[in-house]
Amino acid sequence: MTFLRKTLALSAVLAVAVALFGSLATTASAQSPPFSAYGTGAADGDAIAILAGSTECATATADASGQWGPVQLDAAVGDCVFAAGDTISFSLNGTVAEQTETWAVGGAPANAATGTVLTVAAVADPVAAPAPADTGNAGLAQSTSTSSIATLLLAAFAVVVVAGGRAASRMR
């Protein structure tokens, strides 16, 4: 019975350790380096909006030398959520620019020297971007419930293992 008791105690300790370190690892992964959006070639005072689809995520204003940014885009910025490979688009003074970038953890514009140089096509009448559909997120966006549930299940498993070990040792 001593061997059984030691095995069950070791299993319980390991389950608790996995639960604790698993929740810490989930927290640490949420702090990855952001994408850095910046550019040159704008006019002094130009308003730049950084977009995910038609949703405005962040803004910047060009300085006297035509530079704007850097704007740090985490995986979740305001109402925007980015994943590796997602397209970042821009608007210049309210008009959608022709240039896009690809979001990546710790990423930057394809041309690191100049950043994103924004241009817009000539349009007779400015067309406003349609408002995004409100589809809701059903409580799932930016949720960390998976790691919490896993932690609770592992803790419950540890309790069951310890209780089973105690019950088994009393049955002698």
What report would you give on this structure?
It is a single chain. With 172 residues, this protein is an alpha+beta fold. It folds into 2 domains: 2-30 and 144-170; 32-141. The protein has 2 helices and 8 strands, in the order H-E-E-E-E-E-E-E-E-H. The protein has helices at 2-29, 145-170; strands at residues 35-39, 47-52, 55-61, 68-73, 76-77, 80-81, 87-92, 95-102. The strands form 3 sheets. A 4-stranded antiparallel beta sheet has the order 3-2-7-8, with no helix packed on it. Strands 1-4 form a two-stranded antiparallel ribbon. A hairpin with a 2-residue loop joins strand 2 (47-52) and strand 3 (55-61). Helix 1 packs antiparallel against helix 2. The mean pLDDT is 79.
Relevant terms:
alpha+beta, 2 helices, 2 domains, 172 residues
Short synopsis of the structure:
This protein has 172 residues and is α+β, with helices and mostly antiparallel strands. The chain has helices at residues 2-29, 145-170, and strands at 35-39, 47-52, 55-61, 68-73, 76-77, 80-81, 87-92, 95-102.
State the shape. Answer: elongated
| Proportion of strand residues | 15-25%
Domain module count: 2
Query: How many strands?
Result: 8
Mean pLDDT: 79
The largest sheet, given as strand count, sense and whether it forms a barrel, is: 4 strands, antiparallel
Determine the number of helices (DSSP H or I, runs of at least 4 residues).
2
The end-to-end span amounts to 8 Å
